[in-house]
């Protein structure tokens, strides 16, 4: 992660995504999110209040998840588990992108409409960050 910290600090935008595993993000994504801990500043009193070294810098994010089931409820906590930590760090999540009904590897690459929507979401974020 030490190499990624410099990249995260330099970037004004961040896109996080994860397949839904048992209503939540995958273990590697959870580990990545947990390792954003150095960006928090905590007070020494109880209850410990916190702020973020990344806040107030106009940072933006997109979060997305893919699940096999068709109902968005089957995604469970995934989009929140991706977006809420970023919001706590000072990012504005400009798009929460649920993708339902896909399981097989590479299946989304055959959906031209989905690819168009994802491209447009990325383009929108790039324009916001200019």
Provide a quick synopsis of the model.
Residues 4-37 form the NADPH-dependent FMN reductase-like domain. Pfam families: FMN_red. This protein has helices at residues 2-10, 27-34, 78-88, 112-129; strands at residues 13-19, 40-42, 50-52, 60-67, 92-100.
Description:
The structure is a single chain. The protein is of the alpha/beta class. The chain has one domain: Flavodoxin domain (Rossmann fold, 3-Layer(aba) Sandwich), CATH 3.40.50.360. It is 35% helix and 23% strand. The protein has four helices and five strands, in the order αβαβββαβα. The protein has a three-stranded parallel sheet with strand order 1-4-5, sandwiched between helices. Strands 2-3 form a two-stranded antiparallel ribbon. A hairpin with a 7-residue loop joins strand 2 and strand 3. The chain starts with a helix and ends with a helix. The model has no long low-confidence stretch (mean pLDDT 95).
